[in-house]
Amino acid sequence: MTVSRYPFTAIMRSARPAGLLILNMLMMFSGDGRAQSKTPQAKPSIEDPVVIELRDYQKLLEKHRGKPVLVNFWATWCEPCRDEYPMVNELARTYAPQGLAVMAVSLDEDTDINLVRRFVTRMNPVFPNFRKKHGKDEEFINGVHLKWSGALPATFFYDREGRLAVSLVGEHQRPEFEKIIQQLISSSPPAAGAARKSAP
User: Fold this and answer.
1) What is the CATH number of domain 50-186?
2) What backbone phi and psi angles, to 5 degrees, belong to 21?
3) Do the beta carbons of residue 74 and residue 152 sit within 8 Å?
């Protein structure tokens, strides 16, 4: 699928009689003398993914304590990631009303930001997107999961207490995702006032 762009339109001018030209000019102005713009306003573009470090990632998980969380790591240069992303979006639409929190983190370099913009705009995700800050790759990857090599696509599932429950690295089918999600959603929510355990 390619990104559609608004085509460049050349405006041709033609000679008109003086009287007709004056009439057209009068019609262009309102009673207060300001020209009426016929150009439709451009649709607001999707904001760039917020750049995060490991500590920001950990804060995001903490923010969603009390909910099961799905975090999808992807990149535009990863074909399986591009194939998987629409499925993650569908899962978010289906299970967010049941309490699932979904977010995605791009591992694209700064030089690929235009590719990220186009991809996210085309996918129109219903969940927040972030982008890993350049540098400290090993620290970030190990901070997410010590056994993760950084291979993509990678999806991490956290329980309501913020603990890593399951990780899926590489291509996986929707039924496997749904089985994990349903198990996490069906788990009992923490009792009110119960002490929370720290994530590993």
Assistant:
1) 3.40.30.10
2) -65, -40
3) yes
Helix 79-95 and helix 113-123, axial crossing angle in degrees, nearest 10: 40
| Element housing 197 (H / E) | none
| Tens-digit pLDDT string for the chain (200 aa) | 333 232 322 322 333 344 434 444 444 444 444 444 444 444 445 689 999 999 999 999 999 999 999 999 999 999 999 999 999 999 999 999 999 999 999 999 999 999 999 999 999 999 999 999 999 999 999 999 999 999 999 999 999 999 999 999 999 999 999 999 999 999 866 544 444 443 33
- CA separation, residue 12 to residues 9, 15, 29, 33, 145 (Å): 9, 10, 21, 25, 60
Which parts of the chain fold into alpha helices (H)?
Answer: 18-28, 54-63, 79-95, 113-123, 137-144, 174-186
What is d(CA 144, CA 58) in angstroms, rounded to the nearest whole number? Answer: 8
Q: How far apart are CA 27 and CA 171, in angstroms?
A: 61
Task: Express the helix, strand and coil content of the chain in percent, nearest 5 each.
Answer: 40, 15, 45
| Inter-residue contact 160 to 174 (CB < 8 Å) | no
The distance of Cα 61 from the centroid of its chain, to the nearest Å, equals 16
